[in-house]
Protein 1
Amino acid sequence: MAFHVAPYTTRPNECFQNEAERTTETRTLFTLSCNLCLIIRWFVYNCQSGNGKILRILMFGHTHGAVLQETEGLGRFSQAEEYLAQAEWIIMKTPECSLGVRHQLHRNLGRLHAATENFEEALFHLANDVYYASEEFGLDSTVACGGYILMANIFFKQKKFDIAMSLCTEVANTWHSHLYRILDSHIQNYSSLHNAIDEAQQAEADRTLQCVLELEGQIPTRLPSLMAVACHALAMLWLLGDDFPKATEFGRRALTSSRLEPDCGLSESIQRLLKMSEAGGGLQATGMS
């Protein structure tokens, strides 16, 4: 399910007295918006309570709204909302502001509104997040997956399971394709899997795919095809990260799920991955050497 939201309009040129005034103001606003977005990203990611609950709420929300009252430091939400509102105003006035910065702003706004259970506003901003991320990085980029999984979590809370699982499927397929391309490239070139994926991307993929598994595990009717894709993606992720026991664990889960859904077409690829993980990542185990 795709969400398309038109981008915001910016201040028209005729509002400026001359081109020099326009250039000076837009440069200033652009610098402010970039700096403010960096501050906001730090603020939202680092609002912490003693047990770290606030970070999990901001990342993926929480099933029980009562946690919002129980978590220390949540008074900072109002401060975050104020900063984000200022950033939104600045960016709306800045024609040169990049789509990447806009996507980051709307994702943080979506996280904030999701954490305070203002779901309609959260979905609006997350739709903008996905729009700008797709425009900036491409439709097959994993960048938009963060917005999609946050939306899926909201729809799940609203008991709109079909929409939530549709978004989870999009996320799992996107990460699966991305990781498969990386792994296949290393296999074809007989190159080492060591450092094939950086730590930040590995952490993002793990969080997102684990959230897919968590949501799928709570729906009334299980989806083995989604489980197979998500577990296979996680197996590839940990194989690329040199964690062969984890790669084997998720590979076996993927194989079990794939056998419940014969049409998913992943069994052969999963079995090849299991040979690699059980051999410690050796390319000779693929049969391609």
Protein 2
Amino acid sequence: MTPLEIISLVCNMWYFTLLLFVVSAYYGQAYKAAVVHYYPAVGTTAEETILKNMNEYRKYANKAKSKGVDIIVFPEYGLVTTSALANPGEYSLEIQSPIIAQIGTIARDNGVYLVVNLFERIDDKYYNTNLVFDRNGTLILKYHKSHLYNEFGLTPGTPNQTITFSTDFGVTFGIFTCFDMLFANPSLRVLEGGNVTDVIFVLGWLPSYISLSIQHGYCVANGVNLLAANYGRHIDGRSGTGIYLSDGKVAKVVNDSVKSQLVVREVPPKSLETEKTCPRSVKEKTHTVVTTSKYYFHDVDLTKKFTSTQLCNGNFCCTFQVTLDMRQKNPTDIYKLMIFDDSVSYDKLEANFRICTLLACRNEFVDSCGAMANVTSTFKRISVQGNFTKDNSTFYRPITLHTSLSPLTPTAYCQANSSVHLGTKNQKGVIIFGIFERKDTVSERRDDIDGARNSKIFLVLTWGRPYYFAFFKSSVFD
């Protein structure tokens, strides 16, 4: 080597080292995470139930320590069980409780960051509370669930809570609980400022049918690593725990386990972001434009290789392009395109949603669309694009589902102004593939709810609880 070549090599090595340092400082280091898919123990009293589950937590923390885990996350209701919802006062603890001190010792003894959920008593009020302990067992964050669902004895948290914490491995986490996922505050507020690269999602989500898809959609839309720990109760459909990476990959998930399970995965730093260019939909000669109502289905002709259709309700349009693999199609499969643009009610609230999606159907009746169907056709390409609302109170997320009840991967997702695009290639067993918009304004539920708002397909795409026993048990598993 000439002296000039040696100098050039040294400079390049210095630059590369500096780049690695900057990336590590900004995006954090790789770390090992554990989430617990947990079926709780039940005692004869509230205190016995909490202590039994705390002892189980200790066992999982010990196991996590043996695997070199840095942070372990337990689910919503894991210490108190869902039975506590009937009498939260009996199960609530004050923050100075010796039991909470013992939980801190679990973190300290195992040298891990520890996230637990419990019911907290403050004066005469009770809160659904997440606690975060550092490796020394010190309580470093307390978060009260902001948006309660059928938790009538609890008080919601304030909208301006601290919802982030930093770690000694260079990663800043955000945190929220279950139903909070469907609200911009905290699910998007937690990302403001750009410091949060990883999010902890503590949940008792029901039903499991769409649980993994909701988790994956948040990860894809926001480009973050997501640690999701769900409460296990197979009898009423609570399931769906996973670790998701910022590039949209599903690192590891549990959705059908009938017993508790520790999920461990090394999580790399958030992927370096590259500018995404949303592709334009190509309007072929066969392109069809349909002016629709607020709630409309359009049949997909599986005798044709290519379908290009635009469904519009006023200024809101969904553009679909579907390419079928003609050698691997099932002529008995039924697929429909759907556009939804209306308000929907759940619990005591009413909110605005827009949806563009491809759906598998069990039969020609639209209420069967989105339910589990034995579809086997292969799509070479699926593209869904919508011109959604662009303002600070609105957010969008992909929602996808495979016959395995897992989200579809890989997908390409991007937002450009008001245009949102979702695409994928070479997929078989597609149940749901689409985008939903949620406007983060709510009002009191009205009594004049029409059939569309209570339809099974809308609920399966967004939340699912109100119709679970009528639909999930009879339609998914019969």
Protein 3
Amino acid sequence: MIGLKSLLKKAWPATDACKHAEQAEHLAIADSLLAEVDYQIKELESMHREQDAERRRQETGVDYSWLVSVMPKTYDIPQLERLELEELCYKVNKVECGKIIALFRDAMIREHPVNEIARIMRSCVLQVIEHRPHEESMMEWMAKRTMSLSNLRIRISPRVEPTAGSDGIEDVEMQNTQHREHRAMSVPDFSVTRLPV
């Protein structure tokens, strides 16, 4: 006999698939944001190396860069700071990813020290998350709906009384006893006239 749990797992596997797809999406977003940080760090370091080599070349007049066989050590984000940044990037939606990268690249136009790049990304992520529209909870939604419904209560009087006009005529239909042949000025005349053939 098949167990109930295995039967339910076969019947509704979509919930696990949705969770895995959402997790994979958030991981991809976090990876892309961290890859952007790593790329900017490498670009900044290579720019500093080129500037140092050019400065040495101008001071000595000789280029010894072809003798260098070992690449200089690159900057690594401290582990705790990287984990905090990963956790923060995991909260980002796919719609916000482009905004964060654009903000980060705009901030990177000015030259910054290499150790501040991760903090700049962190501030960009926080800025986008803080400006995220507020999602109302179920209690807030219910409170707002009951308030709007309570304002809509109409008090209907059981007595019906005609209103009296300024000239003493009580009924609107009784105001004009003769039939009107022309339309009011606010309504256009759409009467059809036949043209002679």
Protein 4
Amino acid sequence: MVKPLHGTDGGCYSLSLKTGWTGPWSKIIKMLKHLRDEGGGGDLRSFFPIRVGDGSNNSFWHDVWKGDQPLAVSFPRIYALDIHRRVSIRDRVMVGWSVDSLRRLPRGGIEHTQWEELSELLRDFHLTSFPDRLGWSIDVSDSFSVSSARFIIDRALLGTGGCEIT
């Protein structure tokens, strides 16, 4: 019911709702906005890091799957040279990482440095037969739980002082 009313992401990534909409989901989105803006909760997506499996569901350049930002941001000169910018991780790995996927060879300086750094980052990367999934960075189990979500919400809204809720 959420997707038809608020879009395919339910407003979770954009943290936006249709104007004038009220109800439980609007309260959830408002809480997420509060956590992001005032509670120190950061970007909601940062709690759900991508765990690459077969690489078919995530963008090589645009999703955060290696490091703490998209590869297009980390390696902008190589991104600008790439022929296939809208490629999945799986497709990029299957084709291979070589200068053949670039419009031209990297020139010296920053282009060469970024090429070497990106090549090193990808050198030992391998896909698995499992599907890609989202992790849960709040809990050591890497699996979402209501109690860990409650912990982060309470910590953001109530601070670290005061009485403990069990």
